[in-house]
Amino acid sequence: MCMLLSFTISSTPPGPTFRLTCAAVAISGATVAVRSRPWTSALSIHCDEHPFVPEVERAVDSLYSEFRAVDNLVACNSARVLKAFKNARVGFHHFGGSTGYGHEESGGREALDEAFAEIFGAESAIVRGQFFSGTHAITCALFAFLRPGDELLAVAGVPYDTLEEVIGIRDSNGLGSLRDFGIDYREVPLAEDGGLDWDALKIALKPQTKCALIQRSCGYSWRRSLSVEEIGRAIEIIKLQNPHCLVMVDNCYGEFTDRIEPPMVGADLIAGSFIKNPGGTIAPCGGYVAGKKKWVAAAAARLSAPGLGIDCGSTSGDIMRLFFQGLFLAPQMVGEAVKGSLLIAEVMADRGYEVQPGCGAPRNDVVQAVKLGSRERLLAFCEAVQRNSPVSSFTKPIAGATPGYASEVIFADGTFIDGSTSELSCDGPLREPYAVFFGGDEFVPEPVKFYNQSTIFDQPFGAFNPPTKKGKSPSVFLVDIEADVRDAE
Ligand SMILES: Cc1ncc(COP(=O)(O)O)c(C=O)c1O
Known about the structure:
CATH architecture of the largest domain: 3-Layer(aba) Sandwich
Pfam family, one: Met_gamma_lyase
Number of helices: 16
Largest sheet: 7 strands, mixed
Protein name: Aluminum resistance protein
Bound molecules: pyridoxal-5'-phosphate
Strand content: 5-15%
């Protein structure tokens, strides 16, 4: 939505009033603004009388109140981020890089950790480029808590695919999974409605259960994501059984989708990736762990080494600035991703596809899953998204083995940051029910992608007839991947 907004702004004479008006109308008013302003003639270069695919236009119109609610969420979270930046006295001097041990660093590391902790309601935080990924940060957090003889209890069903080898659900070939270190594992399956099984949870803990793992987002499962309120209720139930059981939340994809975050409702640690929500599509790498001071220090010791703590590790070049800037923009980027998800759900459901979350259901992450039902559809969908991406549009994604995943996975990620699922991208494991997962859809509303010709919506949506007919005539646009590949060659 914001891409449309900024395009509109750049094609108008400068004026604070108009800027404010635009910001206020945010999404659904933007279409109207584009059409009714005489100075938007530049837009006619790209857009005719009906610049949007009709079904997208209808969907946007129908989502007005949802989009408005997202704008309020963004405003609320942005205010919290700004306050934290001010309190941490973030300044230019924090943006410099460091080398070697990172001992001569100019305070940016500390300011970033401090701001992050405040934003997430945590005592302490460690945000570092040295975390390879969300999986790596989560692993450091789990190893911070668990010792031989302890038990890890996953209370929201199966954890994300890449944690299987970390935990030892899948053999890690002796490379050091939790199981290799003598840590047991159990799961509380989800209830039939896809949420937490509250009754089972009330009696789930054993004396040796040292850590409960809660996965906020759906991952690659066909399940709904958890609200922070639900996470808080689960923590209460866990702590009632054993106040010494520590709670770790896999926070990937959930950040800024609510007004509160898990540490505010009692989570001992949260962990996630900076090339997802909190990096605002700007951070080029990294991850974070936040929560109780003692346990953040233990996770940091796992990232580096016991005794080194969090005051070391160099970050070269311009990366510190990108961390700060990405974190600052994150609420807005997440807001756009949520709007994109709403739109995808609306359009695909209208075409007869099963979507998760469903239209009108609450959103607790930025992920939108669409059940495509066959390997061929999943591949074709990802190919179509790739060819409509700003980066590597000329390539064809190929399904294959990916480190950490048992299933073959296909990724369409024509993104500026490699593997960034915060930019428009989608992926999915090649297994039943052959669902595609959109991770970040913030650039979807850009006019060029809604443009009423070869749009990203038109191609993947137009290429498939709905599995269940709803009396609509599908678009005639066909995806000619082979021709594309030949062109590229
Ligand atoms: C819920 C969840 N947890 C963890 C991860 C792993 O994150 P990463 O790919 O950064 O290792 C993912 C990735 O999609 C996820 O969806």
